[in-house]
Design goal:
Blueprint lengths: L1 H34 L5 H74 L9 E9 L4 E5 L12 E4 L2 E9 L4 E5 L6 E6 L5 E8 L2 E7 L10 E4 L11 E10 L6 E7 L8 E5 L3
Antiparallel strand pairs: 1-2, 1-12, 2-5, 3-4, 3-12, 4-5, 6-7, 6-9, 7-8, 8-11, 9-10, 10-11
Helix pairs in contact: 1-2
Length: 275
Amino acid sequence: MIARLDKQQRRALVLLCSLAVLALALDAWQYSAQQKGGRSAFDAAVCTLGRPLQTALLRVTQRTEDTWRMLAEADRLAEENARLAKAVAALETRLTYLREGQRRAERERSLCWAYPRAGKDRPLAHLIAIGSGGWCSYFTVDRGSADGVRVGDVAVAHDGVVGQVYALAAHTARVLPLTDPASGIAVRVERSRDTGVLKGLGDWQCEVRYLEPDADLRPGDQVVTSGTGDIFPKGLPVGMVTDVRADAYTPGKVAAVQPAVELRKVEEVLILRGG
């Protein structure tokens, strides 16, 4: 667009100069005739015929000047629009960054409020990777042994248990999610007080096993940590029963459980002291 405007400007400038030269020539001719004190019939005819031509030339010249100014203004406006578009893009990027920061701060504040007895020394960690290490899946968080994290500590999100720390570096830790087949958590059904072990099935699914044959479980029952085994603190939300069936391998029952935490969307966890 700028190249097209430049070409139009050059054409307008050439036309403007040509018309200006022609108008000046006619003015000079008229002035010369007046200076002689008289005019020949040819001079009179030229002046008579030239007057409307001069008027037309002046109008065309004015319009050409206006067009030239408009083209110059279009160039300036195009540059100004480009500058403003760049400034708007920068502001939108900054606004997005600030919104994400605000949401993160709100999640962190909500997480700390959800566990008021966790203690101020319990580190808040941010998820930095999701991986698979052959026999297990894991989350990597940005806190490690230098921050007081230990193997066996428990990772929780606002809605409940995420998993347990099983490997450490100075500034990172790996968390085994409760849905991994290697995970096992002692749990209790909140309503009936029946106990069992929550086992991961992989693919973000889990179930409670080793329930008694007469265990009273119903879809919708809430499952929490039982506190036995000295690993997971008592009463942490684990999930909700979605289905109950007879165990094909034992006389007891098995209950499918939907995790309380939407593990695919975890961003921050609080590290609680485990066994």
